[in-house]
Amino acid sequence: MLEGLLGLSVWALVGVTLLLTHITIASVTIYLHRHQAHRALDLHPVASHFFRFWLWLSTGMRTRDWVAIHRKHHAKCETADDPHSPQVLGLKKVLWQGAELYREEAGNQSTIEQYGKGTPDDWMERNVYRRPGVGVSVMLLVDLALFGIAGLSVWGVQMLWIPFWAAGVINGIGHYWGYRNYECRDAATNIVPWGILIGGEELHNNHHTYAGSAKLSSKPWEFDIGWMYIRLLEMAGLAQVKKVAPTAIVGPVKPAVDLDILRAVTKNRFQVMARYAGDVLLPVCAAECRQAQAATAIWLKRARKLLVRNHVLLTDRDRCVLERALGSSADLQVVYTYKERLWRIWEESGANEERLLYALQSWCRRAEATRVAMLEEFARNLRGYTLQGAPAR
């Protein structure tokens, strides 16, 4: 029968196709990404197996392969060993050949063995799901039976959905273009603030900053539809959230930096640095621009984004622009220097708490004596960070 068992109209077919592909997106972000790759939540066996089964039908991807490649991406991000970095391979290649890059890395057995630990290895995985061609063939037959000849188009869209949106757009544009809430050590960006079409994965900078968080939205205006689904699954007893990104708690300012402040500031260091950019770096830069001559103002405007960027992402050209801008303003040089000193405290991961406490105390004391009003105020407010009374998620 040419119209299939359901006999749907064209617009109904479009709606059904979008629904089916959205289920696939939800399966990738909830099961493969947040549950399996990052262990940010636990899933009930019923939910877990449904996602595995659906992904076998709609993508043919094996859990172990996907998880291993994604974990390697985080471990080797923006290096020559990253399986799909547009910063290394170019945006065009990752955007349009993301699926090929995935298949190439899936054939690297050392990657699968090193990064694929802890993924399902039961009878179904070994005897059914290891045959991806069977799953997608079953989906084709089901689509043809339900939708008739139009089922070929439905199936084709299903097969292209993840290779384009996940392997191409998220891995490509998500490391190339967009906005950044946090200056993590790689080039990850938030493509848009509303994560709907790709299940919340659009909020990629948030994810790379807090990779272990089950919730990808961070700011009040951001929306992560994958997190909404997880909360619904939790209410139904089918999921249990294990980790979310920390929330900075700021209370009354204490007379001096103590261990509670150190631990709170360290835990929330990305929020602290984002606040430093918004409260100190950018306002000082704007003030200097207003006072500078036209030629100098040009360099200050060019340096605006570079001032807040993580230093590991700066190119030689970026450093030249920064050097020119910083050389034109003593106050800007001061606040940028203190930003770098604050980052160095976080990077001393091997230091004990006593040493880190002394470093943060010294930073605050010196910052409050710089006579740069915005920096002095920021240093004082830093003494209000606390771990006490942290709210539930």
Give a written overview of the molecule:
The protein is mainly alpha-helical and 393 residues long. The protein has 2 domains: 232 residues, no CATH class; 137 residues, no CATH class. The protein contains 18 helices and 6 strands. The strands form 3 sheets. Strands 1-4 form a two-stranded antiparallel sheet. α5 packs across α9 and α17 runs antiparallel to α18. It is elongated. The relative contact order is 0.10.
Which spans of ≥5 residues are poorly predicted at pLDDT below 50? none
Largest sheet: number of strands, sense, barrel closure: 2 strands, antiparallel
- The overall pLDDT, averaged over residues, is 94
How many structural domains can be distinguished in the coordinates?
2
Helix-and-strand structural type: mainly alpha
Number of helices: 18
Helix-strand pattern: HEHHHHHHHHEHEHEEHHHHHHHE
CA radius of gyration? 24 Å
A few lines on this structure:
The chain is mainly alpha-helical and 393 residues long. The protein is 62% helix and 4% strand.
Strand and helix layout:
Elements: H1 10-37, E1 41-43, H2 45-58, H3 63-75, H4 86-89, H5 91-106, H6 109-115, H7 123-129, H8 132-147, H9 151-172, E2 194-195, H10 204-209, E3 223-224, H11 225-235, E4 239-241, E5 249-250, H12 259-267, H13 269-291, H14 294-308, H15 316-326, H16 330-347, H17 353-367, H18 373-382, E6 385-386
Please give a handful of descriptors for the protein shown.
393 residues, two-stranded antiparallel sheet, two-stranded parallel ribbon
